[in-house]
Amino acid sequence: MNKAKTAGTANSGQYKKAKTWSLLLFAMFLIIATILVIIYFPEIKKELALLKKVKPFWLFTALLGQLLTYVFTAIVYLALLKVYKLPQLPHITALFKAAIISLFFNQTLPSAGISGNTYFFQFLARYRISKNKIISLILGELLIFYAAMETIIVTLLIICLFTYRVQHAFTSTLTAGMIVYLVFACMVVLAGKNNMLHRLYAKAMKLRLIRKISNCLAGKMPVELLPAKEIQLREIVKHHKPDLAKAFFFQFLVVAADGFTLYVIFLGLGLQVSPFIILIAFICTKIISILPFLPGALVLYESSLSFFLSSTGIPVGAAIIATLVYRLLSFWLPMPVGAFLYRKWIISHPPADHDYTGY
User: Fold this and answer.
1) Fewer CB in 10 Å around end: N or C, the chain?
2) Domain presence at residue 356
3) Maximum Cα–Cα distance for the chain, whole Å?
4) How confident is the model over 313-322, as pLDDT tens digits?
5) Is 359 within the bounds of a domain?
6) What pLDDT was estimated at residue 11?
7) Which residues of the chain have pLDDT under 70?
8) CA-CA distance, 5 to 63, in Å (whole number)?
């Protein structure tokens, strides 16, 4: 009885500590977001004013396009979760909210996706999914994303070389992106090898910023909780091709929905722009801003997208307006939504009191 009471007291203490850390983290991210809004307020004000230039119907359609990116991301994760035949799966609505919150962390605090994936680890852990399956799912999602990007980049390169003439800046950027994503994919494969995650985790925890993110978002996760055995990514691919193919297809749709948003904004400005131009400018911008320098790759993203769009012959003014409106819909508006959903998630989902063994 005393042991049970002691365990209950310990769990209660851990919950209060975890909740305190979560609230502090939420406050920190809110402060960062507020600072960003204050610093870039003139730009945000300009973007809001530019909304008047876009016809309401097309603006609403563009907003739907952005919502679809989160829906498709949730479907990608759901397809990967089905690989493990779990007795309980997160509902698509919960995954949709998790996708928004992950984006909120990744955009507010640049960490090459570490902050968003750390949150997603804890999100899945509360469904009592084992650490091996969570990590393999995250690695699998990254591999599928890199594979989708490689496919798109190679296709664009072939079209540029043999069909559609573009400036050298486009082909150079696409070639660099192909190499970078290939390197990232190799790193993910190596991360699944035996003991590799232990070494990566140990090195990452030496960085103060990453250590704070890990401790605040997911609780202190010691090295021994990482998978001791190799994550069999090859076996997963071999035995679950239909589910992986579905995830791969919807990863394409995530990119397509982003491109569709930008395309619709141009329609709202009264310009008919080729979908190919939209796609190649968007992908090149994604490559340029792949490494985090500022939250959401601010300034770098806007200048790159405006440059690539105007380089194809689109009027500079229209390219800048479309870029700023797109960033308003894809970056600034989701930030308060992500903050609100995360705060709500903290309150309604107390930390799970389990040892990450799960199903």
Assistant:
1) N
2) no
3) 77
4) 898 888 888 9
5) no
6) 43
7) 1-51, 108-114, 192-239, 291-298, 349-359
8) 51
